[in-house]
Amino acid sequence: xxxxxxxxxxxxxxxxxxxxxxxxxxxxxxxxxxxxxxxxxxxxxxxxxxxxxxxxxxxxxxxxxxxxxxxxxxxxxxxxxxxxxxxxxxxxxxxxxxxxxxxxxxxxxx
Length: 110
What we know:
Blueprint lengths: L2 E7 L9 E10 L5 E2 L12 E6 L4 E2 L4 E9 L11 E2 L14 E2 L9
Antiparallel strand pairs: 1-2, 2-6, 3-5, 4-6, 7-8
């Protein structure tokens, strides 16, 4: 495809209200110039994302484009935890050997 994308967070452990930096780098590994019209960093509802440096533009062959963002964790963000847990009655009857999922939308996560 000729494009590699690397997104790196400056902090792996964040809490409600904290602002942290995220760097997005796109590398053009092709022999052709690639126009970049926009770079968007998606975040959960209630979080804010502000671009702090870099801008879309043209990336030369074998060149790179770097953009930085300040991301603020939303005030209602859940504490980091596994999306699954063992039920209190695990192994005590039929169907009780499975994990419970708190958020149904997470059912298909690996």
